[in-house]
Amino acid sequence: MYKTFFSLVFKRMDAERAHHLAFRWIRLAVRVPVLRTFVAAVFAPRYKELRTEALGLRMHGPFGLAAGFDKNAVAIDGMAMLGFDHVEIGTVTGEPQPGNPKKRLFRLVEDRALINRMGFNNDGSLAVAARLASRRPVFKTVVGVNIGKTKVVPEAEAVADYVKSAERLAPYADYLVVNVSSPNTPGLRDLQAVGHLRPLLSAVREAADRAVPARRVPLLVKIAPDLADEDVDAVADLAVELGLDGIIATNTTIAREGLGLTSDPAVVQETGGLSGAPLKARSLEVLRRLYARVGDRITLVGVGGVETAEDAWQRILAGATLVQGYSAFIYQGPFYARDLHKGLAARLRQSPYATLADAVGADVRNPA
Ligand SMILES: Cc1cc2nc3c(=O)[nH]c(=O)nc-3n(C[C@H](O)[C@H](O)[C@H](O)COP(=O)(O)O)c2cc1C
Questions:
Q1: Residue 240 sits in which domain range?
Q2: Which of 209, 279, 326, 359 lies at a CB distance of 3.0 to 4.6 Å from 353, suitable for a disulfide?
Q3: SS3 track for 130-152
Q4: In this predicted model, what pLDDT tens digit does every residue of 238-256 receive, in sequence order?
Q5: Residue nearest atom 10 in ligand 1 by C-alpha distance
Q6: Which residue in 165, 181, 182, 283 is the catalytic one?
Q7: Per the structure, how many domains does the chain have?
Q8: Where residue 11 sits, what CATH number does that domain have?
Q9: pTM to 2 decimal places
């Protein structure tokens, strides 16, 4: 049904307009108590066997919404109503900013992919912190807060910009993510080099501890799929050294070659980060490499091209404790999380593992 609706309505609309329209419906639905109870019952059934503990947090399951969909923390309950077990808001920057000029979001329907160069359009850390502070949750869900650099802030002042966001937002974050991997802020991905990353992560850790002395807010870093393998290893080693809580792999890719893209070449060559199905193989590869390096010392979050329960299961076997998705939600609609959970519970039951936790990293620990 959603596929027909997508072809008839959303596909004919500008991608960003369609996003805002869907977003408005979700936010409206969650305001009506009877409706939200009904929608949650249909779209967010809970499976006991999928209960997950990660980052010191209890969740209904391992599958959550990746950053970028709810940049300003306005639809956390709406996304929980649709079955996402955690919602990562942001990227939020120190200061508010409009992002890049439109048009900046493109669909590659044949490839089940998107290209975006949104450029961190968001209300800024002060406004988002105020919104989170006044939030009255309707559904219990884990809220991750993803932070990034304000575009106009020079690289030399990047740490201070992240620290500002961390201080303002950590009090409302179940976990905090340092995003150094979006391709749409000039110079941002250079911060993935260990020489830049060490002082940045240390400063954000201290800022979070200063802002929230009573609780250790878990800190994660989100990396790009375009890192060379040695750089993936270097980030993994640094994460262990600094006592980081997790790594999110991966963000979107700037690659286009060798991905078998069949969509209109004029769209394929748009500047920005590519997400969705064509990202699947590399994201999985990066995840597997990370798990081989860090094992169970750090929580890994698998994201990039997760479309089905089988994809999520493969991420878990490759070392992910948590799994996220974004692009497939655009193509599959409100049944995305529900179908994924149902399939994942079935996959676990058929497997030799008693719990999801037992399956984490099994493929890497015992290669076939
Ligand atoms: C339109 C769009 C905006 C995004 N914005 C952000 C962002 O602000 N911060 C971030 O860390 N990732 C952002 N992402 C990346 C996603 O969180 C995710 O890492 C990536 O899309 C791969 O997952 P997917 O293939 O399931 O979409 C964005 C992705 C899309 C499609």
A1: 2-365
A2: 359
A3: HHHHCCCCCCCCEEEEEEECCCC
A4: 999 999 999 999 999 999 9
A5: 67
A6: 182
A7: 1
A8: 3.20.20.70
A9: 0.97
